[in-house]
Design brief:
By secondary structure, this protein is an alpha+beta fold. It has one domain (4-137). The chain contains three helices and seven strands, in the order E-H-E-H-E-E-E-E-E-H. The protein has helices spanning 15-25, 45-48, 129-137; strands spanning 4-8, 35-38, 53-58, 61-75, 81-87, 92-98, 105-108. Strand 4 (61-75) and strand 5 form a beta hairpin. The longest helix has 11 residues, at 15-25. The protein is globular. It holds the Pfam family DUF1489. It comes from Pararhodobacter aggregans.
């Protein structure tokens, strides 16, 4: 069964900021795939690689996820081995889910993960992020 990872998206103000940041760095990365390098290798790597995603917390809310494709070993300039979480470039918006800040990353069970938002139909507008976040605070789904 898939296991997800929950991570703060430090420095991004919106999902669009995350998309732009990843696009700008794509040419520098092996295979052009977005990645996040972390000190710790997931102990439950097999579960994470069994269909897991990274759920990004932006401005206090989980707003988007990306499927984790693989884990690559990376050696830092200091000689310390690290783990690169390599993602599918597709950003999948989720229902906003408030989360408190924390250091590093956390595992996220599938039953605790926010649902994906449906794709907008032609002619249908997506809710503004502020409105979607306010509705999430009231428990609207």
């Amino acid at each position: 069964m898939a296991l997800h990872i929950l991570k703060l998206c430090v420095g991004c103000e919106s999902v669009e900021d995350l998309a732009l940041w990843q696009q700008e760095r794509a040419a520098e990365l092996p295979g052009g795939l977005p990645r996040h390098v972390t000190r710790m290798w997931p102990k439950r790597a097999d579960e994470v690689l069994d269909g897991g995603s990274i759920y990004w917390i932006i401005k206090g809310n989980v707003l988007v996820r990306q499927r984790i494709l693989r884990l690559d070993p990376v050696e830092g300039t200091d000689g310390i081995n690290r783990c690169a979480l390599v993602f599918d470039p597709a950003l999948i918006r989720t229902e906003p889910a408030p989360r408190r800040p924390f250091q590093g990353w956390r595992y996220l069970k599938p039953e605790d993960a926010p649902r994906d938002l449906p794709e907008a139909r032609p002619g249908e507008e997506v809710l503004p992020p502020e409105l979607a976040e306010a509705l999430a605070e009231f428990g609207w789904r």
